[in-house]
Design brief:
elongated, mainly alpha
Length: about 160
């Protein structure tokens, strides 16, 4: 009987350790809620810092937080061909008294910079919209940097 127990002892120890690690990995629901609340507070602080930074860089109503927040969404939706949502956001943008010409200039800037290499990467699109919102007169990248040079030709 003892030899049977000794044979299964490693299996029992493994089962106990797996159960303990699973329970530890799941964590306390209160701890998860605290972590989520901290992450949400961090995102909110970053967003407020971003809006304040844009307001410092821009003058006029286009730099107002509500104009920046809604305007960048309008430009992003236009670039994504989501025209229905873009026009609904544009109604809000107009209602806040934000300058419509800034939407046009920012969208022109985004389009003139050419296609985005990875359109599924939201960071690329949002980064371009942000930079064009702050400086809609930004020149598009030069043709030399936009296209890669050909590496050679073949002769026959």
């Amino acid at each position: 009987m003892l030899s049977c127990f000794l044979r299964f002892l490693p299996v029992i120890c493994l089962a106990v350790s797996v159960a303990a690690s699973t329970a530890h990995a799941q964590g306390d629901p209160a701890e998860k809620a605290k972590q989520q609340a901290a992450e949400q507070a961090k995102r909110e602080a970053n967003r407020q810092n971003d809006l304040a930074e844009v307001a410092k860089q821009m003058t006029g109503p286009a730099g107002n937080p509500e104009c920046v927040w809604v305007g960048r969404r309008v430009v992003h939706r236009l670039f994504q061909d989501d025209l229905d949502t873009a026009f609904r956001h544009l109604d809000l943008y107009d209602r806040f008294g934000c300058p419509g010409g800034h939407i046009q200039a920012a969208f022109r800037c985004v389009v003139m910079q050419g296609p985005i290499v990875d359109p599924k990467a939201q960071e690329n699109i949002l980064g371009r919209v942000h930079s064009c919102w702050v400086n809609p007169a930004a020149p598009p990248p030069s043709a030399a940097t936009a296209t890669s040079p050909q590496t050679g030709t073949t002769t026959q």
